């Protein structure tokens, strides 16, 4: 995995539907509950959790884990 360990809504393109999305670091599954958090707290940063434990696919797969609220943030796309 790249140096990315937390993601904001802006970094995933402010997606509006749950699903699996391809990013430069691999496939990311975004659940309805994740979107619910982002809609209420757009600056929340989620931790990436790897899900491809058996190596059964070529791309790395991730889901969103715990999140932190970033109250002093502008949640722009360049934010890390």
How far apart are the termini?
Answer: 15 Å
Number of helices: 1
Number of strands: 5
Unreliable runs: 75-80
- Give the strand line-up of the largest sheet: 1-4-5-3-2
Based on the structure, what is the oligomeric state of the protein chains?
single chain
Shape: globular
Question: What would you say about this model in short?
Answer:
The chain is mainly beta.
Q: Main traits of this protein?
A:
11% helix, 5 strands, five-stranded mixed β-sheet, mainly beta, 1 helix, disordered C terminus, globular, 80 residues
Walkthrough of the structure:
The chain is mainly beta and 80 residues long. Mean pLDDT is 83; it is low at 75-80. The protein has one helix and five strands; from the N terminus they run βββαββ.
Q: What is the element layout, followed by pairings?
A:
Layout: E1 6-8, E2 19-23, E3 26-30, H1 32-40, E4 45-50, E5 61-68
Parallel strand pairs: 3-5
Antiparallel strand pairs: 1-4, 2-3, 4-5
